[in-house]
Amino acid sequence: MAGKITVDVVSDTVCPWCFIGKRRLESAIKRNPGRDFLVRWHPFQLNPNASAEGVNKLQYYKDKFGESRTAAMLPRMTETFAQEGLAYSMDGLTGNTLDSHRLIAAAGQQGPQVQDALVEELFSNYFTQGKYINDPEVLKAAGQKAGVTDSDAVVKDKDRLRAEVIEELQSFARGVTGVPYFIIDGKYALSGAQEPAAFEEAFARLA
Question: Which site in 23, 27, 37, 44 is 20 to 30 Å from 196, CA atoms measured?
Fold first, then answer.
């Protein structure tokens, strides 16, 4: 078996293309069964000044992109999600993602499998189930389902891992202009929700 490949993913939990990128990365990994992969998730905030209370998701899109552009975007996003076997929902609220990133960081301390399971659960909550992932109860439930043993304590303690996450946010904000952003073995970078073939090409270069 070839050596382990580390994939560092910079993403935001309210970024639809980050969920698509996760699926496409997973497809590429499945096509390389003879290799060992370590996937690690890192924080990014598309809107660091977003309200902690949350605002209507659809209205936020309309305010940000305009009525006509939003109307054009949503069918495309729905189709793209469907191609990856996912439903796309514009129900619910959107808002600040710092607490979700704190919980992801806590999950990472328990190992990559727990962290990846939490990222999957948060994406699913937000994009397919219309849940507000800054709601403490939603975060706690997602953490418990993913196997984060102290999710309740992390959610309640707003200072838990806050400084570490903010430091990492600031670090990536200096070099990453858009997400998802994939750093493969510290040697190759891919920006955006690339097709599986793009990941496979990078993996082949490391062979």
Answer: 44
Answer whether residue 2 shows pLDDT above 90. no
Contacts of 90 (CB under 8 A, 6+ apart): 57, 58, 61, 74, 130
Q: Which DSSP letter does residue 165 get? A: H
Helical pair 16-30 and 112-123, crossing angle rounded to 10 deg: 130
Distances (CA, A) of 150 to 43, 58, 108, 204: 20, 33, 12, 39
Domains identified in the chain and CATH numbers? 5-205 (3.40.30.10)
Tell me the whole-structure pTM to 2 decimals: 0.96
* Phi, psi (degrees; rounded to nearest 5) at 5: -110, 125
Residues 43 and 46: their CA atoms lie apart, in Å, by 10
Q: How far apart are the C-alpha atoms of 37 and 187, rounded to whole Å?
A: 15
Residue 131 and residue 138 in contact, taking contact as beta carbons nearer than 8 Å:
yes
Banded model confidence at residue 180, pLDDT cuts 50, 70, 90: very high
